[in-house]
Amino acid sequence: MSEVQTLMDMGFPRDRVEYALQVTSNKVEPAMEWLLAHVDDPLPTRQNAGESPSSAIPPTAAVDSSAGAASSSTSGAGETSADSPVAKSLKCDDCGKVLKDHTEVEYHAAKTGHSNFSESTEEKKALTEDEKKAQLALIEEKLKQKRIEREEREKTEALQREKNRIKSGKDMTEAKRRMEELEMKKIVEQRKREKDEEKAARDRVRAQIEADKAARKAREQKELGNPEPAPSVSSTTVSSPPAGVKSPPRDYTETRIQVRLQDGSTLQETFNVKEQLSAVRVFIQMKTGIESPFSLMTTFPRKLFAEDDYEKPLEVLGLVPSAVITMTKTAA
């Protein structure tokens, strides 16, 4: 609401409000004090360079001048001026309120919606000191109330802005959290797929090893099922082996393998001598969870196993009845 409308809501005419704001640099409270102090004073004539002298005359002066001119013309026509009533104010026929000039009529009509007005010989009385004080108190109360309403409105707007800011921050945080959850879910699913693929590969290796074991066992059983006939030895002709002849090597079925890892720790496991060296590598992967490629070697004698050695049985590689294998990085 503008300063003019604020003061007009308090009951002041528009022309006096505009003049009061002009002399008080458009400040509401000083303008209100000026209006109360000069409530009965006539407005000074203001004549700008672009205005004609007649346009600078206030409406009340124009009404008085026109009334005087009409009176003069009437008296000049031979009518008696004492008998004809003189309009000193305007009156609202709807509520009976006495109004000073057309400006007050326009304001009253806009505010109340009344449309029936007539001229009145009743003169609008000036406010007494008590009435001025009462009106001043009422105006101050209205200003106080408007100030309280403005402060409450500003507090409400500030609170709403803060709520919007917090809500915007929460929305951004929630969106960021959802994005992080989706990204983490993708990573977990990717790792799960990789682990499933590795598990499937290890299962294939185990299945291959088991198949090789079963094939070797079948061959051994077949060989044992058709033994070659042993030469008959007479109990009377049994002789001890000649001196200096070594006994044949012992036939081992298992071998004990100790693995030295890169971090210095060791693993130990017993394998069938017919198992391939690849079984030792799968055993290391299962125990350590190492996914990067690595190689195996022996120290005494020093030998780095080639790729085709992993398909050979442990007994063929000389890792019977026990051996120490060292884990090393694969050469680039």
Low-confidence stretches: 47-82, 233-241
Basic shape: rod-shaped
The helix/strand class is: alpha+beta
| Largest beta-sheet characterization | 5 strands, mixed
Account of the 3D structure:
By secondary structure, the chain is α+β, with helices and mostly antiparallel strands. Helix content is 50%, strand content 12%. The strands form two sheets. The protein has a five-stranded mixed β-sheet, with helices on one face. The chain has a three-stranded antiparallel β-sheet with strand order 2-1-3. Strand 6 and strand 7 form a beta hairpin. Helix 1 packs across helix 2. The longest helix is centred in the middle third of the chain and has 97 residues. It is rod-shaped. About 14% of the residues have low confidence.
Write a brief caption for the model.
The protein has 332 residues and is α+β, with helices and mostly antiparallel strands. Helix content is 50%, strand content 12%. The strands form two sheets. A five-stranded mixed β-sheet has the order 5-4-8-6-7, with helices on one face. Strands 2-1-3 form a three-stranded antiparallel β-sheet.
Characteristics of this structure?
332 residues, alpha+beta, five-stranded mixed β-sheet, three-stranded antiparallel β-sheet, 50% helix
Element layout with pairings:
Elements: H1 3-9, H2 14-23, H3 28-37, H4 59-76, E1 89-92, E2 98-99, H5 102-112, E3 117-120, H6 129-225, E4 254-260, E5 266-272, H7 277-288, E6 294-298, E7 303-304, E8 322-329
Parallel strand pairs: 4-8
Antiparallel strand pairs: 1-2, 1-3, 4-5, 6-7, 6-8
Helix pairs in contact: 1-2, 2-3
